[in-house]
Amino acid sequence: MTDKTKTIYLGLSGEIVHPGIINIIKEAAKRGDVLVGLLTDSAIASRKRVPYLNYEQRKAVIENIKGVSRIVAQEEWSYIPNLRKYKPDAIIHGDDWESGFLRKERDDVFALMKELGGEVIEIPYTKGVNSSAMGEAMRSIGITPDVRLASLKRLIEVKKIVRIMEAHSGLSGLIIEKLEIQKEDGLHSFDGMWSSSLTDSASKGKPDIEAVDLTTRMQDLTNILECTTKPIIYDGDTGGKTEHFVFTVRTLERNGISAVIIEDKVGLKKNSLFGTEVKQELSSIEDFCLKIRAGKRAQITKEFMIIARLESLIAGHSVDDALKRAKAYVEAGADGVMIHSKEKSGQDIKEFCLRFRDDYLSVPIVLVPTTYNQFREKEFLSWGANIIIYANHMLRASYPAMLNVAKIILDDERSIRADEFCMPIKEILELIPGGK
Length: 436
Ligand code: SPV
Ligand code: MG
Description:
Blueprint: E1 7-12, H1 19-31, E2 33-39, H2 41-45, H3 55-62, E3 68-74, H4 80-86, E4 90-94, H5 103-116, E5 119-123, H6 131-140, H7 145-158, E6 162-166, H8 170-178, E7 180-183, E8 186-189, E9 192-195, H9 197-202, H10 214-227, E10 232-235, H11 242-254, E11 259-263, E12 265-266, E13 281-282, H12 285-298, E14 305-310, H13 319-331, E15 336-339, H14 347-359, E16 365-367, H15 377-383, E17 387-390, H16 393-412, H17 425-431
Parallel strand pairs: 1-2, 1-4, 2-3, 4-5, 6-9, 6-17, 9-10, 10-11, 11-14, 14-15, 15-16, 16-17
Antiparallel strand pairs: 7-8, 12-13
Helix pairs in contact: 8-10, 11-12, 13-14
The chain binds sulfopyruvate (SPV) and magnesium ion.
Sulfopyruvate binds at residues 196-198, 208, 235, 271-273, 368, 370, 391-392.
């Protein structure tokens, strides 16, 4: 008979329900009332990818499983805060946490349950079920434009820092899609991609002056969209004429792009990293607000984001000027702001972020730390920033690698010495499945 006076705590993400989960719930129910600590979206996102199903959807599934008595939110990856709060008689867990990155958590749970006078129940891990592999398989099915489009807003809601990397081709997109590093505090990966005007232009041998049109850039983007599922932020330069920008918004939305960033410059646009070496003319606040408003009116989905990029610091103006503009753009409907600078110290950016956050607690702040790249993401987070874009690194990395190999072959009049700098043929054949 189940002892209904006992509470058994079970922490779950509950995205993929498989026989292993059912088994553990059954085992828990034999011992008492099953209290499920369902991990919130942010708790999962702090260690793994953002779950496909949101908290409410996962809750609707788990609360209908036989044996589950009650569900509470587990706001942290760690079980500890909820164990302290609910003081269950026992916690139940698969024995697969004895090794690997959950080991420390296991030690902490044992120590706490001892202090609380409770028990830790370990259930043999159900063999042949690998929920990470099942998750991968689900994702390999692909994604539809509307789901991809909406995923950036969700990431911003659930992650402290959204980490974006530049992609200019299907292959660079694939690296960003797949690369994962297991660190002490969980699985690290890039959250999405930046479609950069600089690298899109450079890879076509063109300067970054809005000479590559939207149709051409969409062709490259299509290659990226074909083989990835993560959200994409589009560098919309100045947005062009307001009358044209409204069509850009529609094109991007139709293709599942999550956001466009437009900068408040007019005239022949030059890359911001030239700073005041070139003429950088700012738009009037009124005109730029009109463009933002027109874009917001034109969008069809509620999730598409138009982010206003402030070029005051690039053009040699003050942080005050950037703040004044930022406020006007947000009032005009911008879904976020990007502050740019080519200063190495980062102090101008820090001041902007801290002062902007005084007025707007949650409007996303985007940073592009190309020159002030001594800071880690955590530092930017402490300033109030939440989207970090590594804007050109994939292209900048590939150019010297290609140049080096070309030089070797030209010099040696054969390629044998270049092999060590190249991916093995076997690897490139196997990189993309389905070639055999
Ligand atoms: C880009 O990547 O094209 C950008 C960022 O707009 S920057 O090059 O720093 O201006
Ligand atoms: Mg650009």
